[in-house]
Structure to design on (962 residues):
């Protein structure tokens, strides 16, 4: 168990800057999720933390100790790879024991450790099998077991669930959460799946183009995204965006006008902006309500996706574009229906031209 | 001929199958399978007064025990095993080393090294034999001068001309030429090992040597086994190098004689000895059996124990 | 220094390792090329220069083409090269065509005898055709083919087919079944399926097979020596072997003859090395 501190970490491959100076504080026992689109540098950052890649610039502290240049094993980290990376020629026991064997631990100790971890992961009946004789889920567990036996200070997970099928992914996600509760270990977890990030993370780090876009708790990111990028990343289905212009500047209530000329009132602080400034209006599908009569807009349903408990309506708004609405599953809508819906001013988000969010005035945190 | 799959209608005769298969089968059968079987058959016959007669295993008994034959036969066989041993002990380890170095991550110019080191393998053994014969020639003295320049001049000798060193020298020439093959095949296997597996080893604390020993080596063992059997077959089939450098007599005093040259002499004759088709066939049969046993051992023992790994 | 920088990784602990790796590989590259280069540069030098300064490049004093003139005068290198070319091209072409047809038939169609034929071809990969030389020679004599290039072509096809059938079969298996099934649904004939759909898809594998088949044929001494030793049918390898054996004391000629044999192969190798190495490393041969 340990804290991890990143101080202006940079990584350059040849002439290409991949990470532009990452600062991050991770507390002991925290489950931190690094999330971002592919190529945003999240996996590279994980490899820098693991010691598999050299840090170009900046300082990395694990447990208050600077570990730049230290080999992976000496950093006290363990890593679970996306491909699991099990040694194909070793059985499950040997796979899990390998790290301890290299460290020169005595046989009885190794055996105890491996069996203990295997029991915890319910793979103790598979110890004699080779990786190719295991199912995907079982391989996954072996990979986690291999990390556990070494009692690392920090666990690094690189998209560990992405090779599992959907149902197994949900199940393993839950188990990972429980395992973290049990081990109380510091975990750094890379994923591109926002559901994994929201459900597992104590803290989410949203990365974009080699920079940290925002750090915060799942709910904080949901309610107070710092940028349009974060707002679009967190939440499913994605936040809708519409172009608008500010027509009334204020610190509490603001009015904007959409391209079609509809006027919308928004509970956002627009002080510092000029009248007529272009902004992006953000509307979460789950916040648009067909029963709300403020800020009403009408449109025509082009497609309905039924998910059972809820449905997604794809609504075409003349002169504005398409919006996605999340509605109750028991509904009577059909494609082609005209609908009117509204959204409360304090549920709306505004983003400046450069993507920065304008401060929201809302009671919820 | 075609098994009916699921139809009631009778299928027309599969002429296309005949058309596709016959030409290859005909040529392969006539000029490879038949001659091989015929050779095995022929080895059981002898020629007496111009008449071919069945003699059973007499040719083999002659080869192995007769004073005129057995010495040459055993000499060639033992030499051939020495030739093979040198390849196994020198060529394949060097090939392995080069492959490992070539596959170092982020190595610049690896493609160039690979292409250049493989170059000699492309050339004819005959040409390579002559090239080294010139280089090692005391008349030209390139090797001698080179050794003097690094202070080892007094070790120089006419290696190819001495009974004690000729075979070893020729083995080294062959090793020099064919190092590229184990290198390439092992290199290809190393490239196929996913980076993640090696990374996992590094995270587990393995140093480069341990990574090689515990992770990479077990994964390339199947390739090494295959390289070994290829070396075995090629070595017990070798002829050109000896013939080019030392001639059919595999001098000095047959010290470089291999099964291939022995076969050639037996079949075509040399000096005063008449060539004999049936004795030649007997030698070929023995070579066939040696290679067959080698291949079988490979298939049944090594291949079965070392599975190929899927990643 | 900036030049070096590009080659070496940033951290110092990697630099020394990287230098060692380059040093060993470079050393071995020199070992691999030195003998060949020595022969080639000396082929262009006068006899005196060959002995006086074997490592030096030819200069205006020592440069001569006398060796090459002698080789071309005293032996028919043009003819030998032509023979080699004809034999190699025809044999490789037929190995590819017949091998592809057989590979297709053996992997696509189920029929009795399929296994035994596949096995027969597989054996040929390991068992050298040379072992049947005694019978091949008498067969060729009976067929009146002794001392003809046809004899060589036939033997080389038989020699090349097993590996070709094996590699191409492996490749055919990777072609999606839907492709042929779709064609059959459209009532395309089996011949058309093979020649118009499969054969074009086999091209990359055939390139690999071509290189693997070509090299042993071009370089072979055994069968030219035994089946076609006559002056008219000599291949380049046999031609060089005979020439060098005959003029062993004429250094200019010997070096020139070797150079004439080496250089074309090296040029072709440089052109096709990418293809060859891709073939070797793609796992086509296992």
């Amino acid at each position: 168990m340990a804290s991890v501190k990143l101080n202006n970490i940079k990584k350059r491959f040849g002439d290409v800057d991949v990470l532009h100076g990452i600062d991050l504080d991770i507390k002991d026992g925290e489950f931190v999720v690094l999330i971002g689109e592919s190529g945003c540098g999240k996996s590279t950052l994980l490899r820098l933390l693991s010691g598999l890649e050299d840090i170009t610039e900046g300082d990395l502290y694990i447990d208050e100790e600077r570990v730049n240049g230290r080999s992976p094993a000496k950093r006290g980290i363990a890593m679970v790879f996306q491909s699991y990376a099990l040694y194909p020629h070793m059985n499950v026991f040997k796979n899990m024991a390998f790290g301890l064997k290299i460290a020169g631990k005595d046989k009885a100790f190794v055996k105890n450790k491996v069996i203990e971890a295997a029991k915890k992961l319910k793979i103790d009946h598979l110890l004699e099998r080779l990786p190719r004789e295991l199912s995907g889920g079982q391989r996954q567990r072996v990979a986690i077991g291999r990390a556990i036996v070494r009692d690392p200070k920090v666990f690094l997970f690189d998209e560990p669930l992405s090779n599992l099928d959907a149902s197994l992914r949900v199940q393993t996600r839950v188990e990972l959460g429980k395992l973290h509760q049990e081990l109380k270990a510091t975990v750094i977890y890379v994923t591109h799946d926002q559901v994994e990030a929201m459900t597992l993370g104590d803290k989410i780090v949203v990365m974009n183009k080699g920079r940290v876009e925002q750090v915060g708790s799942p709910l904080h990111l949901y309610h107070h995204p710092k940028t349009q990028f974060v707002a679009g990343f967190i939440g499913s289905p994605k936040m809708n965006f519409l172009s608008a212009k500010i027509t009334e500047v204020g610190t509490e209530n603001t009015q904007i006008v959409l391209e079609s000329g509809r006027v919308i009132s928004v509970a956002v602080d627009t002080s510092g902006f000029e009248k007529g400034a272009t902004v992006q209006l953000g509307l979460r599908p789950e916040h648009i309500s067909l029963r709300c009569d403020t800020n009403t807009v009408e449109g025509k349903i082009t497609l309905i996706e039924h998910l059972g408990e809820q449905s997604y309506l794809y609504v075409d708004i003349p002169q504005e574009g398409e919006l996605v609405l999340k509605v109750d599953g028991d509904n009577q809508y059909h494609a082609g229906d005209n609908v009117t819906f509204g959204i409360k001013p304090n549920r709306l988000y505004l983003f400046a031209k450069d993507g920065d969010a304008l401060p929201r005035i809302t009671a919820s945190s | 001929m075609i098994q009916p799959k699921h139809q009631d209608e009778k299928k027309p005769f599969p002429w296309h199958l005949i058309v596709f298969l016959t030409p290859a089968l005909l040529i392969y059968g006539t000029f490879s399978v038949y001659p091989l079987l015929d050779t095995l058959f022929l080895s059981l016959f002898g020629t007496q007064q111009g008449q071919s007669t069945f003699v059973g295993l007499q040719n083999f008994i002659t080869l192995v025990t007769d004073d005129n034959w057995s010495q040459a036969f055993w000499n060639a066989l033992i030499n051939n095993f020495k030739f093979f041993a040198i390849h196994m002990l020198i060529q394949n380890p060097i090939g392995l080393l080069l492959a490992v170095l070539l596959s170092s991550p982020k190595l610049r110019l690896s493609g160039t090294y690979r292409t250049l080191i493989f170059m000699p393998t492309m050339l004819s053994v005959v040409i390579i034999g002559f090239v080294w014969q010139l280089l090692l020639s005391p008349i030209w003295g390139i090797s001698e001068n080179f050794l003097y320049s690094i202070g080892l001049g007094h070790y120089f000798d006419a290696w190819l001309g001495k009974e004690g060193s000729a075979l070893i020298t020729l083995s080294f020439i062959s090793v020099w030429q064919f190092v590229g093959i184990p290198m390439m095949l092992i290199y290809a296997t190393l490239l196929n090992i996913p980076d993640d597996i090696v990374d996992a080893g590094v995270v587990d604390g393995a140093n480069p040597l341990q990574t090689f020993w515990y992770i990479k080596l077990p994964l390339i063992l199947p390739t090494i086994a295959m390289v070994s059997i290829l070396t075995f077959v090629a070595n017990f089939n070798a002829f050109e190098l000896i013939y080019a450098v030392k001639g059919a007599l595999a001098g000095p005093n047959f010290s470089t004689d291999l099964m291939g040259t022995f076969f050639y002499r037996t079949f075509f004759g040399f000096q005063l000895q008449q060539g004999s088709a049936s004795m030649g066939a007997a030698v070929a049969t023995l070579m066939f059996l040696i290679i067959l046993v080698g291949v079988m051992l490979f298939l049944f023992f090594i291949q079965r124990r070392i599975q190929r790994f899927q990643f | 220094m900036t030049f070096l920088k590009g080659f070496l990784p940033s951290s110092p602990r990697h630099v020394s390792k990287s230098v060692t790796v380059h040093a060993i590989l470079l050393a071995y590259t020199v070992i691999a090329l030195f003998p060949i280069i020595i022969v080639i540069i000396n082929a262009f030098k006068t006899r005196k220069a060959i002995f006086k300064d074997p490592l030096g490049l030819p200069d205006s004093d020592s440069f001569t083409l006398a060796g090459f003139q002698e080789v071309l005068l005293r032996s028919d290198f043009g003819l030998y090269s032509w023979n080699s070319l004809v034999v190699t091209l025809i044999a490789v072409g037929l190995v590819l065509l017949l091998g592809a047809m057989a590979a297709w038939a053996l992997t696509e169609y189920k029929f009795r005898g399929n296994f035994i034929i596949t096995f027969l071809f597989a054996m040929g990969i390991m068992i050298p055709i040379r072992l049947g030389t005694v019978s091949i020679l008498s067969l060729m004599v009976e067929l009146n083919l002794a001392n003809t290039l046809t004899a060589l072509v036939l033997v080389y096809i038989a020699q090349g087919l097993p590996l070709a059938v094996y590699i191409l079969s492996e490749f055919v298996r990777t072609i999606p079944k839907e492709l042929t099934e779709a064609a059959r649904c459209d009532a395309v004939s089996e011949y058309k399926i093979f020649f118009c759909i499969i054969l074009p898809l086999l091209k990359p594998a055939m390139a690999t097979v071509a290189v693997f088949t070509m090299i042993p044929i071009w370089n072979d001494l055994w069968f030219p020596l035994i089946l076609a030793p006559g002056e008219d049918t000599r291949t380049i390898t046999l031609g060089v072997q005979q020439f060098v054996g005959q003029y062993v004391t004429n250094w200019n000629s010997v070096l020139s003859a070797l150079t004439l044999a080496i250089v074309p192969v090296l040029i072709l190798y440089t052109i096709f090395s990418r293809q060859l190495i891709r073939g070797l490393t793609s796992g086509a041969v296992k």
